[in-house]
Amino acid sequence: MDQSLVEHFVEHFDHHDPRLGAEPEPIYAAMRADHPVAHSDVHGGFWVISDYENARYVLQHPELFTTRETVTIPPGLGNARPLLPLELDPPEHVKYRNLLAPVFAPRRIEALGEKIRANCDRLIDAFIDRGGCDLVSEFASPLPSMIFVEMMGLPYEHYTQFHTWKDVILHGHHDDVDGSKRKAAGQEVHTYINELIGRRKSDLSDDIISVLITAEVEGEKLTDEEIIDVTYLLFLAGLDTVTSAISLSFLHLATDAARREAIVADPSLIPAAVEELLRYESLVMAGRTVVEDTEVGGVEMRKGDRVLVNTISANRDSTFFENADEIDFSRRERRHLAFSVGPHRCVGSHLARLELRVAMERFHQRIPDYRVPAEVTPKRYLTSVAGIETLPLEWTR
């Protein structure tokens, strides 16, 4: 990346600028080295936390840095109401998070292993004999969606519409300055979920929406609005982050024959590979608002200031992770921030890890030698959640 562009982003950091998505690490490295707590003058102004120590501190102190109305910068995920439980602080946050904890408990998630394997094989069956595929659209996107929509109680045949809404809401900032497109998409999602809740009340099942319909918080059942608030958050998270994690992991394995051959030869390395690739290719820029005047990394912040925690950069911090810019499946230090830390740590992390692990196991068992075609340069993007648009792969049939 041109040095002048690096200097531009250090002062005018904008994670929605398409120029940043292609090669962000030189910018992150410059910020970690000289401006670990920097101020950007775009989107009304906000602080950017790029190093591991300060990022972890902000995430672990909700009494100083609230998620209320600031999970993204600029604000706006098409929701007129709060995303529950994300946009609440403890102790109120705990009441709603506890509703989801049993649904995403490790024992219940592990029981999904065979279903995920069967879905992997079904998807691979469709392209293995072609000698190629687009990893994103034919594997990384449909795989977690198959599991998620069933857990939620959503009809899989509407999968394409779900992803259209999700992409507008999460990745449409750069061509939606006034937020009207995101607002319209968000309203369509709200309407869809509201109608589904109405139908589900007379036909309860064991899906998440049914769980929320029957759940109680402090002796009171959730209102329809609260059920929508929780479901809307899960809708966005469940359809996006695992797809990006699978895609970016396979991008590295497709371009690194030695590491790919290592996990093919010894599949027991896969859990460690999952953790290391989550660290190396983290996804989320987490927004917060300063609750009271405070100091972070020697920088004074005022009540009401907005803060962007760049966990993608923090997980490449060489002051915490030795040889942070190298992928090392034997790495001992694994306290990465890919799933955040503190009270807002990702409730679906067990499911994400399982899906990543099974995806690597099945794909590499059936297609052990694949690569990115020589003429292809995969196009990455960066907004509040990083990812890759397409990932063409080829192999010998």
Automatic annotation (TrEMBL):
This is Cytochrome P450. The keyword Protein biosynthesis does not apply. Keywords: Heme, Iron, Metal-binding, Monooxygenase, Oxidoreductase. It comes from Pseudonocardia xishanensis. PROSITE patterns: CYTOCHROME_P450. Pfam families: p450 (PF00067). SUPFAM superfamilies: Cytochrome P450 (SSF48264). The keyword Oxidoreductase applies. InterPro entries: Cyt_P450, Cyt_P450_B, Cyt_P450_CS, Cyt_P450_sf. It comes from the Bacteria. Belongs to the cytochrome P450 family.
